[in-house]
């Protein structure tokens, strides 16, 4: 079953703008009628039910990450990068993950809370003042998205004066990752080259004068008795920027959008901030920043009576799995900020489970605590919003805010 150029509503076609705007009817059709879907051009398979995706991502003996995470044949070659942690299988993956985990200890993550809160405060002061003066505020560009960029700069220990350089690099990397194959990749490649030059210098400096930051930790770390090379460390920086930035910003933006779609739920959350940590998982379940990533079969795999041969790309449709009624019940499409969610796939599962999930949740928790305390009627103007076009992630380019002028 192959999707065509004008496949129409409810048909799975990851390249189609209408599908990207509202993929959920197509996901439902896949789950119900075609749970082991075969796509012809480009050739790949897609799993859409929760249990199938859950089991597949937890089975590295059959599903490998080493051929990349998209259905593009050579995505990493396009960037001239060595494979990063997210594109490795055990045992090398296990050893690298152990190293990077040193930068994400609960203590280190928790210690960032006061700085993140101060940053969020400052952004809200500015947004509120602009809204009160009758100016437009872009919730995504001016609030949600700067938070993770600030956090990454903190994590890397960038000098304050250099942070202005960092923003455009992060945007370029994000553009490449989110379909940059057709989005000005050359400009983005220049920005990446510039960023790598800057980081190479930083790594040299941290080797000589290590501090407490993540780059210093990595310069001191050893793998199989050897220090990590500059190239290894650059790969880590790349994966953190590409994986930890827009994902987190979009979680915050989608959360505001979802709360604006059901004001009773927004009132519940504004009245009880203890609900916020659970609500974040609910936002991610309904509107996941990562909608799907691929694995490659290492052996023939049989699911629901259909055999996927060895060497095939298989999309793990996290965005569909997270709305599966078989897992979340008949109201799986509804927002319930108090929902119990024993397991979900917003951060994947298994060996590649998101290593930054605590940090992402910390940022989003602070964002919602502060936002709802100050602007309990915060919302978004979808009529003027612009969605990001991507076959793999779900997010925003622009998302105008409402309700910021009523403090
Ligand atoms: C809401 C925000 C986030 C979402 C939705 C998210 C989602 C994900 C997902 C789905 C994966 C698994 C990829 C796969 O299937 O192969 C992943 C892995 C990863 N994420 Fe996140 N992520 C978020 C935030 C972050 C942050 C803040 C960081 C770090 C600053 C981060 C760093 C990583 C890394 C390093 C991996 C690779 C782990 C490995 O391969 O072992 N992520 N993330």
From TrEMBL:
It comes from the Bacteria. The keyword Oxidoreductase applies. Keywords: Heme, Iron, Metal-binding, Monooxygenase, Oxidoreductase. Its cofactor is heme. The keyword Metal-binding applies. Pfam families: p450. Belongs to the cytochrome P450 family. This is Cytochrome P450.
């Amino acid at each position: 079953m192959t999707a065509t150029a004008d496949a129409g509503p409810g048909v799975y076609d990851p390249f189609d703008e209408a599908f990207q705007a509202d993929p959920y009817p197509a996901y439902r059709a896949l789950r119900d009628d075609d749970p082991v879907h075969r796509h012809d051009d480009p050739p790949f398979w897609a799993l859409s039910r929760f249990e199938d995706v859950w089991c597949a991502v937890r089975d590295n003996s059959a599903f490998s990450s080493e051929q990349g995470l998209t259905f593009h044949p050579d995505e990493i070659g396009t960037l001239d990068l060595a494979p990063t942690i997210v594109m490795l299988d055990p045992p090398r993956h296990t050893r690298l993950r152990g190293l990077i985990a040193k930068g994400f200890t609960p203590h280190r993550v928790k210690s960032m809370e006061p700085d993140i809160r101060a940053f969020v405060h400052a952004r809200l002061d500015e947004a509120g003042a602009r809204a009160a003066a009758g100016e437009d505020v872009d919730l995504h560009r001016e609030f949600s998205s700067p938070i993770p960029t600030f956090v990454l700069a903190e994590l890397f220990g960038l000098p304050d004066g250099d942070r202005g350089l960092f923003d455009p690099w992060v945007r370029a990397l994000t553009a490449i990752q989110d379909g940059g194959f057709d989005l000005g990749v050359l400009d983005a490649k220049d920005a990446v080259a510039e960023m790598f030059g800057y980081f190479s210098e930083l790594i040299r400096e941290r080797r000589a004068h290590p501090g407490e930051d993540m780059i210093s930790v990595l310069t001191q770390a050893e793998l199989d008795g050897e220090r990590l090379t500059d190239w290894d460390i650059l790969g880590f920086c790349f994966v953190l920027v590409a994986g930890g930035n827009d994902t987190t910003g979009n979680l915050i933006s989608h959360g505001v959008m979802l709360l604006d779609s059901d004001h009773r739920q927004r009132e519940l959350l504004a009245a009880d901030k203890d609900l916020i940590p659970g609500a974040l998982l609910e936002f991610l379940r309904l509107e996941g920043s990562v909608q799907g990533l691929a694995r490659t079969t290492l052996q023939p795999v049989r699911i629901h009576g259909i055999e996927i041969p060895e060497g095939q790309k298989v999309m793990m449709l996290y965005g569909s799995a997270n709305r599966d009624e078989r897992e979340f019940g008949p109201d799986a499409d509804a927002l319930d900020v108090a929902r119990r969610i024993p397991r979900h796939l917003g951060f994947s599962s298994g060996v590649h489970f998101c290593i930054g999930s605590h940090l992402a949740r910390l940022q989003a928790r602070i964002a919602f605590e502060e936002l709802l305390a100050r602007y309990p009627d915060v919302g978004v103007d979808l009529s003027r919003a612009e969605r990001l076009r991507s076959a793999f992630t779900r997010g925003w380019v622009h998302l105008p805010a409402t309700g910021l002028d009523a403090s």
